[in-house]
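worker-03 picked up job from queue 'complexes'. Input manifest follows; two sequence lines, order preserved.
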Amino acid sequence: MARQMNVPTLVEQARAGAPRAVARLISMVEDAHPQLREVMTALAPHTGRAHIIGITGSPGVGKSTSTSALVTALRKRGQRVGILAVDPSSPFSGGALLGDRIRMNDHVLDPEVYIRSMASRGHLGGLSWTTPQALRVLDAAGCDVVLVETVGVGQSEVEIAGLADTTIVLLAPGMGDGIQAAKAGILEIGDVFVVNKADRDGADNTVRDIRHMISLGDRTEPHLWRPPVLKTVASRGEGVDEVVEALDKHWAWMTEHGVLRKRRLRRAADEIEAIVIKTLRERMGDLRGGHGIEDHAALVVDGTASAYTAADDVVASLT
Amino acid sequence: MARQMNVPTLVEQARAGAPRAVARLISMVEDAHPQLREVMTALAPHTGRAHIIGITGSPGVGKSTSTSALVTALRKRGQRVGILAVDPSSPFSGGALLGDRIRMNDHVLDPEVYIRSMASRGHLGGLSWTTPQALRVLDAAGCDVVLVETVGVGQSEVEIAGLADTTIVLLAPGMGDGIQAAKAGILEIGDVFVVNKADRDGADNTVRDIRHMISLGDRTEPHLWRPPVLKTVASRGEGVDEVVEALDKHWAWMTEHGVLRKRRLRRAADEIEAIVIKTLRERMGDLRGGHGIEDHAALVVDGTASAYTAADDVVASLT
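worker-03 finished. Artifact:
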């Protein structure tokens, strides 16, 4: 069913920055295209250059506006930018539902900016499997920075932090109440905190709350990075240069202390595990087609075996 | 670290209906206790009798009140009832955060009612792994009906439907707008729809909307079951007997057409798969300890291998 692609040509075009080739490669990731393995192997030598930056925050903090403002600032420096907007909320959405989240009108015509929406929880698997590969595509396409934007829902914030070199946590005045942030688990994952809409009442209180909570937490990274807490009014571009500066500093700090490599190693290990699990699931799927698991399921339903005993037998048949 | 349990005695006590034994067995599930396999094997012959009913709906539709009213109705018939409240929202919550969701004051002292809260996304794994086993415990403890209640967030509604024989979707007036329901994917999963708070304005519109949307959808079950759309005011117990009646009818229909067995077979197969994946993950975890995956990750980070090639090597070492 899947169309046969000329992978070397596509990869060459993507590396040269052709937007359609980049888009096609990401679609191949989303569709789990049969030639995806070939794509990833061809891309591998050309990855590792981009600074992957995660941007997360609750609905209403101004994520799209902030992302757009960041892109403007990065483009001023002549950098090529990729943007991946990940929707963790629905197993049913295709990319279409995401359309309204991306307000990138200033950038859609810029050939040095790649914008892509992805549903993270499609039938083909979760965030951990597709998103890292889409990031690799943008990385290999010569992006200096790739911004991964997600709305903070449940576990997604923590997951996005696991995909990025640097994670920006966006807040808005009144939402920075320390206990809320602690509950959401965002204090642990933020490398840079940004209180957007800082022209509103309460911005300074929010900054103070977050600073206080950060000072209480114990961060596990060696060579302590103290996350800055900055203020922006993204809609007017105010404070955005300071955010870019903080991102540069964090990059330099990570590089200097070996943290960048450590994070990337952990990420690659997670990605490998996800692919291993996917492979083994597929083998089990083949078993299901062949009635292997169904026969075991019948024993469980009839009470003659526990799910554990059945699982042992399946593992034995896989390995 | 885990305390050694006398499993045969615990199981015997649980089957006799001793609440403390039931509670302890569910704790063993939650903690992935080393003797859990022994527990599940001992329980296996005593499972399969209970009618597992999923109850889901958005925050504010009155899930706890409805669950409580259902329990009252079922108890009037002399049935033993288990209630499992599953919190899908947070990886950080222990059971404690769930306390306020269970407003079961009418039932906590009833020795024929078992109430338990579970966080579904603990560090030990997701809904698919722990919840079915907790259900088995309540089933083996002689519950005639087990209610699994979860708040509708993201994928959790679909997951709960996968765990239950019958799924009740709760709505409230004004929330039944067909497009919302279709977006949330609940039209496909509901066996019985209940519009609660039916004394409020708009209840009849909501009922009509849902009926209309159901008539448009194509349901894949054979021997078409047309989900009833009922009205309740759970806080006053109004309409609850009709819900119980609908549940009985659905049970009879499922039994008559082999749907019950089909659903349970699929569920058991999913459960077996989840345990298989867990087992293989643990083996990979052992690999990680032994630097197996870390070495592969370094190749990926350095661009000398793709994650696929690395995953192939890991699969080969597992199998």
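worker-03 released lock.
Residues 85 and 117 of chain A are 5 Å apart (CA to CA).
Confidence is low (pLDDT under 50) at residues 90-102, 122-126 of chain A.
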